[in-house]
């Protein structure tokens, strides 16, 4: 599933094409993806000027001068295509601009979503209401994480994946950050001391920023809007590298936890 870096990369790729442009065509090509596409999407967005693009957790935001914000989620296999030669059967939403540009939201597995809300009510959007802070924002720091984990006996990996604690983190980047910080994924969250939590916050930021710089991670379906693949997967420390050397010289191991694969090194992660 595209995680925070992939969504951030997508938004950055869309911004030069959409920001400031007037939408001359808004064409949903089916009634639903994972759930129904708003029936008034075409009416409310056709003719509108895009005033800004952003991201919240794993969602992209496209705001217009009519006070509306379209919220998209890429699901398992979604991606935006810029100026496709032809519109394909898996292109479920097509946008065209007054500059003659075309964008298509492609989602073969149809696990993504499109919503439309009033811009001044974005924070009340149900998927956003209980989200924790952004991991790249100032609010996500050692003091915050220490307070959130105090008394928690659950494993730190599961706690970092809890979107109510921190928004946007997924399996790949949590595995990578825990390895960088030298913390075992099974460690009880409330037992990790302040100094190690500080290292973890720094590692989360470093991993996410490196992944964004690399255009995200392409494992199966993900591609940037310009068609380029994300190459952060070539820099993985542990993810998907079972039996290979960890940067510390140990051996990467894999175990299944909660339906996900966890990759870690017992030599350096304690």
What is the rounded distance between the termini? 28 Å
Strand order of the largest sheet: 1-6-7-5
* Uncertain segments: 218-222
Please outline the major beta sheet.
4 strands, antiparallel
Shape: elongated
Measured as a percent range, the helix fraction is 25-40%
Strand content bin: 15-25%
Secondary-structure content class: alpha+beta
Q: What's the order of the H and E elements? A: HEHEEEEEEEHHHHHEE
Number of strands: 10
What is the typical, i.e. mean, pLDDT? 92
Number of helices: 7
Structural Rg: 20 Å
Descriptive overview:
The structure is a single chain. The strands form three sheets. The protein has a four-stranded antiparallel sheet with strand order 1-6-7-5. The longest helix is centred in the last third of the chain and has 20 residues, at 194-213. It contains seven helices and ten strands. The chain starts with a helix and ends in a 6-residue tail after the last strand. It is 26% helix and 21% strand. It is an alpha+beta fold and 270 residues long. The protein is elongated, with a radius of gyration of 20 Å. It has helices at 4-18, 41-45, 126-129, 142-149, 156-161, 171-181, 194-213; strands at residues 23-28, 50-56, 59-64, 68-73, 79-82, 91-97, 102-106, 113-118, 253-257, 260-264. This is Formamidopyrimidine-DNA glycosylase. Belongs to the FPG family. InterPro entries: DNA_glyclase_Znf_dom_DNA_BS, FPG_cat, FPG_Glyclase, FPG_N, H2TH_FPG, Ribosomal_uS13-like_H2TH, Znf_DNA_glyclase/AP_lyase.
């Amino acid at each position: 599933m595209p995680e925070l870096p992939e969504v951030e990369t997508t938004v950055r790729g869309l911004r030069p094409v959409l920001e400031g442009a007037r939408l001359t065509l808004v064409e949903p090509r089916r009634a639903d993806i994972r759930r129904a596409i708003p029936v008034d999407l075409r009416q409310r967005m056709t003719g509108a000027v895009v005033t800004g693009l952003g991201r919240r957790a794993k969602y992209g935001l496209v705001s217009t001068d009519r006070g509306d914000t379209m919220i998209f989620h890429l699901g398992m296999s979604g991606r935006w295509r810029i100026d496709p030669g032809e519109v394909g059967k898996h292109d479920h939403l097509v946008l065209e601009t007054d500059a003659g540009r075309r964008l298509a939201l492609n989602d073969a597995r149809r696990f993504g979503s499109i919503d439309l809300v009033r811009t001044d009510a974005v924070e009340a959007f149900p998927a956003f209401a209980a989200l924790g802070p952004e991991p790249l924002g100032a609010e996500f720091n050692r003091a915050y994480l220490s307070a959130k984990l105090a008394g928690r006996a659950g494993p730190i990996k599961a706690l970092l994946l809890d979107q109510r604690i921190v928004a946007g983190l997924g399996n790949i980047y949590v595995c990578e950050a825990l390895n960088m910080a030298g913390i075992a994924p099974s460690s009880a969250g409330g037992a990790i001391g302040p100094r190690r939590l500080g290292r973890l916050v720094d590692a989360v930021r470093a991993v996410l920023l490196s992944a964004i710089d690399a255009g995200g991670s392409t494992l199966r379906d993900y591609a940037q809007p310009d068609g380029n693949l994300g190459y952060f997967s070539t820099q993985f420390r542990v993810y998907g590298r079972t039996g290979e050397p960890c940067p510390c010289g140990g051996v990467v191991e894999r175990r299944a936890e909660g339906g996900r694969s966890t990759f870690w090194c017992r030599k350096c992660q304690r």
